[in-house]
Amino acid sequence: MIFVTVGAQMPFDRLINAVDSWAADHDGTEVFAQIGKAGARPKHVRWKTFIDPEEFKLVMQEANVIVAHAGTGSIITALEYGKPILVMPRRADLHETRNDHQIATAERFREMGSVAVALDENELYERLDELESIEPGRAISASASPELISAIRDFVHSI
Predict the structure, then answer these.
(1) What is the mean pLDDT of residues 80-85?
(2) DSSP string of 2-46?
(3) Do the Cβ atoms of 63 and 83 come closer than 8 Å?
(4) Domain that holds residue 78
(5) In 86-120, which positions are buried (b, 16+ CB within 10 angstroms) versus exposed (e)?
(6) Burial bucket for residue 11 (CB in 10 Å: 0-12, 13-18, 19+)
C-alpha cells in the first residue's frame, strides 16, 4: 500500500491530484491519502481529510512506501519506521508555502540518501512508476547514530 500524506498545516492539491492521476492508470495499486485541507478530492484513491495520531501510526506501519510533501515531520516519521519515502516539495512560487524551505529540505535529505525526490508532477509520476526501486533511507531509531541525529537537528534548525 502507498500512503500519501500532506501534513496538517496547508493544502497540497498538486500532490493529491498527481497521485490520483497516477492511481487512475494503476488500478491494481492500493493507495490511501491523508489530504488535509485540500480542495482536491481524489477519485481513484481512498482518502481522509485528517487521521488521528494512532491511525497515522497504523497506516504508516502498514504502508510499503510513503509519498509526502517535504515536511521534516513526514520524512523523519518515515525514517523512524524504516519506510521508503518519495517527497514532492511544496513551492513558494505556486503559493503552496511561504518560502522554498521544502525544496532545501528535500535536497538535503536526498544528499543524505534518505529520500527519493520528485520536484514536479511529471517527475512524481515517473518516480511512482519506479516505486520498487525506492529503498528506505537509513532508519532513525533509538539506535540511530549521533551523527545522523545531529545532522538532522542542525539542518532543521538552519531552515
Answers:
(1) 89
(2) EEEE--SSS--HHHHHHHHHHHHH-TTS-EEEE-TT-S---SSSE
(3) yes
(4) 2-158
(5) bbbbbbeeeebbeebbbbebbebbeeeebbbbbee
(6) middle
Average pLDDT of the chain, as a whole number = 84
Instruction: Tell me the one-letter amino acid at 85.
Output: I
**For 71, which DSSP code?**
-
pTM of the predicted structure, to 2 decimals: 0.83
CATH number for position 153: 3.40.50.2000
3-state helix, strand, coil in the chain (%, to 5): 45, 15, 45
pLDDT digits (tens, 9 = 90+) for 31-57: 999 999 878 899 999 999 999 989 999
Bridge partners (DSSP) of residue 67 are 4, 86
156's grid cell: 532543521
Count the domains in the chain. Answer: 1
The CA radius of gyration of the chain, in Å to the nearest whole number, is 15
Contact status, residue 138 vs residue 152, Cβ threshold 8 Å: no
82 backbone φψ class: left, alpha, beta (φ>0; ψ -120 to 50): left
Q: How far apart (Å, rounded) are the C-alpha atoms in residues 4 and 122?
A: 17
Q: 25: which 3 cell numbers?
A: 492508470
